[in-house]
């Protein structure tokens, strides 16, 4: 076997003393897979986005739709507050508004053939303006200031519990299966 190289199984190349040669394309350090770009000196690094987070550019039309829905929802909330004022004691009107808004948000998937602007109008727009955390928090603070700490606690816990249950009920209604003879 003079002049001929001995055939060596690649799995045993190291055992025969032969180097294993694997062709690779070498990229510059900044273009290698998984390489992180270092920020310039004196700047803060950009925050990392969680996996699956999609960020879309804000569109002027979408902002207008949400603003119109939010203004309408806020006027509806204010109107209900004027028609049925809370009076002294427990703020039933605000609690009812928040629970009703959460129920309606749970029903939102029932809107058939909706485009994203209708979803924006009804969800963060109308229902976002209709429900209110700021009034809820201010009324709870007012109850504590007036010395009604237990009533304030009941209001805070009761509103959250009722709102979550209402959203769950709306969602359950929106996703229930239709009977076979529903359209006949």
UniProtKB/TrEMBL annotation:
The chain crosses the membrane at residues 57-78, 90-111, 118-137, 149-169. InterPro entries: FluC (IPR003691). GO terms for molecular function: fluoride channel activity; metal ion binding. Keywords: Cell membrane, Ion channel, Ion transport, Membrane, Metal-binding, Sodium, Transmembrane, Transmembrane helix, Transport. GO terms for biological process: cellular detoxification of fluoride. GO terms for cellular component: plasma membrane. Residues 18-45 are annotated as: Disordered. Na(+) is not transported, but it plays an essential structural role and its presence is essential for fluoride channel function. It is found in: Cell membrane. It catalyses: fluoride(in) = fluoride(out). The keyword DNA-binding does not apply. Coiled coil: none annotated. It is a multi-pass membrane protein. Pfam families: CRCB. Na(+) binds at residues 128, 131. The keyword DNA damage does not apply. It comes from the Bacteria. Belongs to the fluoride channel Fluc/FEX (TC 1.A.43) family. Fluoride-specific ion channel. Important for reducing fluoride concentration in the cell, thus reducing its toxicity. This is Fluoride-specific ion channel FluC. It comes from Nocardioides currus. The lineage of its organism: Bacteria, Bacillati, Actinomycetota, Actinomycetes, Propionibacteriales. The gene is fluC.
């Amino acid at each position: 076997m003079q002049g001929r190289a001995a055939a060596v199984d690649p799995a045993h190349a190291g055992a025969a003393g032969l180097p294993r040669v694997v062709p690779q394309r070498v990229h510059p350090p900044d273009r290698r897979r998984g390489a992180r770009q270092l920020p310039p000196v004196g700047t803060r690094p950009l925050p990392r986005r969680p996996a699956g987070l999609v960020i879309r550019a804000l569109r002027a039309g979408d902002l207008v739709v949400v603003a119109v829905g939010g203004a309408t929802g806020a006027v509806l909330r204010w109107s209900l507050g004027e028609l049925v004022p809370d009076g002294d004691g427990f703020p039933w009107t605000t609690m009812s508004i928040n629970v009703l808004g959460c129920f309606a948000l749970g029903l939102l998937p029932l809107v058939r053939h909706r485009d994203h602007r209708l979803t924006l109008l009804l969800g963060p727009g109308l229902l976002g303006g209709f429900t209110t955390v700021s009034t809820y928090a201010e009324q709870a603070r007012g109850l504590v200031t007036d010395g009604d700490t237990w009533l304030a606690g009941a209001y805070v816990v009761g509103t959250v519990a009722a709102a979550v249950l209402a959203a769950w009920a709306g969602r359950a209604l929106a996703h229930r299966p239709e009977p076979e003879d529903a359209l006949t």
